[in-house]
Amino acid sequence: MQQQSDKMDKIVSLCKRRGFIFQSSEIYGGLASTWDYGPLGAEIKRNLKDAWWRSVVYERDDMEGLDAAILMRPETWIASGHVTSFEDTLVDCKSCKKRFKVEQITGKVCPECGGALTEARQFNLMLKTHLGAIEDETSLSYLRPETAQGIFVNFQNVVTSMRRKVPFGIAQIGKSFRNEVTTGNLTFRSREFEQMEIEFFVKPGTDEEWYEKWVSERYDWYVKLGLKKENLRKRAHDKDELAHYAKACTDIEYQFPFGWSELEGIANRTDFDLKQHSQVSGKDLAYFEEETKEKYIPYVIEPSGGVDRSILAFLTDSYKEEEVKGEKRVSLAIDKSLAPIKAAVLPLLRNRPEIVKLAKDITKDLKKEMKAMYDDTASIGRLYRRQDEVGTPYCITVDVDSLSDRKATVRDRDTMKQDRISVDKLKDYLVEKFEQ
Ligand SMILES: [Zn+2]
Questions:
Q1: Residue 327 lies inside a defined structural domain of this protein
Q2: 302 shares its domain with 347
């Protein structure tokens, strides 16, 4: 356990030191449970979202993408059930003012300071705001607590505009907000977070089969992107754990240093949402099946993953410490497609203008294809260590020989094997490596 919390400390330190994740508003003392992605974190995030989008939208024939607004009509959240039942039951400590979920309290007093507690009361997790000039009940609006509803309310728009037939899905990546009381573990549970969600619409009766299919497809995606199988598991929810709208749900969990926790949930949401929106909006959201002349409200399978949690899992999983020639080597053995920097070009001698020029020319050329950088701010040994630590798959060194043979040395992050490659072929060589 000690070892595990050490590991978490190392990840937290790496994230801050190397520009993956910073605390929000840090110069003002930080805003609790809100995080900023630094230069390298922003790259990983883009890469992860791209990998997801490629896999669920581009590589399939039965999916469309969507990018709905964060702000929606308040009726949306009445229909979805969030206004009435998206709440925690909370108690406050009268002396230290700390707030707890009722489930966290075992005795009758504050677990932190022993102070007296208030009566339990309901606390809605949605973040409220007001739209327009007047701040009253009529202008009340919410920051969406899930991206899903933006998909449901556009179901008919997508069917009509894209001439889609059930079964098909709509995929979306976007921010959601929850006024969480218990937060912590870096970006694992934050008040502002990003989701990668699919609502997959199917004919009632075929839902269980599609549900199973999506559980295994989504599990395989994490494995394919490099998460170790021993750190991944599928956990089916018990009946009493299920959300009010769900018939079944399986979590894909990752073994974080702080324990097994959810990366993604795959839920069978039945026809709950479309039915609710039909009722509340007064619009008939049923689907008409040409072939059979049947009219029905589709069932929905929802694979819903957390972008921030996944990034944390990929960082934790790929963090590696080993002994190399009597020295400690830290590396991020992260999938090449996720690595924030794909190639670093390092001149062996930074006081030789011809070497520097060649290295900079190589960098410029690589930048057309990938995130590449030039660095000459330290000795070669140190430059390698810096790149290893942030998971750069390839380091390219330019030396004196490069000037005569027009070749550079390419070093592989994981094998540390070095290849001498012709400068003209370098870009193609790396592009090919990334396609493998
Ligand atoms: Zn207290």
A1: no
A2: no
CB 314, CB 226: distance < 8 Å: yes
Q: How far is the CA of 93 from the centre of ligand 1 (A)?
A: 5
Tokens of 316: 């934790």
436 CA from centroid of ligand 1 (Å): 56
Is residue 166 domain-shared with residue 297, that is, in the same domain?
yes
CA 95–ligand 1 middle distance (angstroms): 5
Contacts of 64 (CB under 8 A, 6+ apart): 57, 158, 162, 164, 168, 169, 170, 171
Q: Which two tokens stand for residue 97?
A: 């003012």
Q: Are 263 and 192 in contact (CB under 8 A)?
A: no
Residues 367 and 291 in one domain: no
Compute the distance from residue 109 Cα to the ligand 1 centre, in Å. Answer: 8
**Are 296 and 363 contained in the same domain?**
no
Same domain, 284 and 354: no
In a domain, 235, yes or no: yes
Residues of the chain with pLDDT under 70: 1-2, 182-183
Is 24 part of any domain?
A: yes
Residue type, 364: K
Answer whether 330's CB lies under 8 Å from 391's CB: no
- For 167, the domain range is 2-73+146-315
How far does the centroid of ligand 1 lie from the alpha carbon of residue 256, in Å?
A: 29
Centroid of ligand 1 to alpha carbon of 183 (angstroms): 17
How far away, in angstroms, is 113 Cα from ligand 1 center?
Answer: 4
CA–CA separation, 7 vs 436, rounded Å? 31
Residues 237, 308 within the same domain: yes
Question: Contact 227/315 with Cβ under 8 angstroms?
Answer: no
pLDDT tens across 25-61, in order? 999 999 988 999 999 999 999 999 999 999 999 999 9
Note whether 295 and 411 are same-domain residues: no
Strands 372-374 and 343-347, by their bridges, are parallel
Tens of pLDDT along 145-159? 999 999 999 999 999
